[in-house]
């Protein structure tokens, strides 16, 4: 199971409002640090769930991929490319990838 964490927006950013604070997670990050809530979306290889980081009480959206499906459908390279691209992006209209980690 591969888990990609991204912050959930707390307020819309407008030209007249101050930018949202930069959010980060203390490292190392593990799945055991989160309490999972509702499913926000479902895709081909997994789902995005709302989660709360227990040590900091901050809300996050976590993308959980089914590793067996990624391997079965020969999508490993595509997922690795997505991870690399997402780590490089910094745009107000694109979700920021903050951390990645693996479960079991």
Characterization of this structure:
This protein is α+β, with helices and mostly antiparallel strands and 104 residues long. Helices cover 18% and strands 34% of the residues. The chain contains two helices and five strands, in the order E-E-E-E-H-H-E. It is globular, with a radius of gyration of 14 Å.
In short:
18% of the residues lie in helices and 34% in strands. With 104 residues, it is α+β, with helices and mostly antiparallel strands.
Q: Could you list some keywords that capture this structure?
A:
single chain, 104 residues, alpha+beta, Phosphorylase Kinase, domain 1, 5-stranded antiparallel β-sheet, 2 helices
- Overall form: globular
Structural class: alpha+beta
Find the count of extended strands (DSSP E, 2+ residues).
5
Low-pLDDT residue intervals, each spanning 5 or more residues = none
Strand order of the biggest β-sheet: 2-3-4-1-5
What's the end-to-end separation, in Å? 6 Å
User: What is the average of the pLDDT values?
Assistant: 83
At the first level of CATH, the class is Alpha Beta
| Rg over C-alpha atoms, rounded to the nearest angstrom | 14 Å
What's the name of the CATH homologous superfamily?
Phosphorylase Kinase, domain 1
What's the structural blueprint in terms of helices and strands?
Elements: E1 2-7, E2 34-42, E3 46-53, E4 58-65, H1 67-72, H2 76-88, E5 99-102
């Amino acid at each position: 199971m591969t888990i990609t964490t991204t912050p959930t927006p707390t307020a819309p950013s407008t030209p007249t409002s101050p930018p949202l604070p930069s959010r980060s997670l203390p490292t190392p990050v593990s799945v055991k640090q989160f309490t999972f809530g509702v499913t926000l979306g479902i895709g081909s290889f997994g789902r995005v769930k709302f989660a709360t980081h227990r040590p900091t009480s901050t809300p996050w959206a976590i993308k959980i991929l089914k590793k067996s499906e990624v391997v079965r459908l020969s999508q490993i390279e595509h997922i690795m490319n997505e991870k690399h691209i997402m780590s490089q992006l910094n745009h107000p209209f694109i979700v920021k990838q903050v951390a990645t980690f693996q479960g079991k």
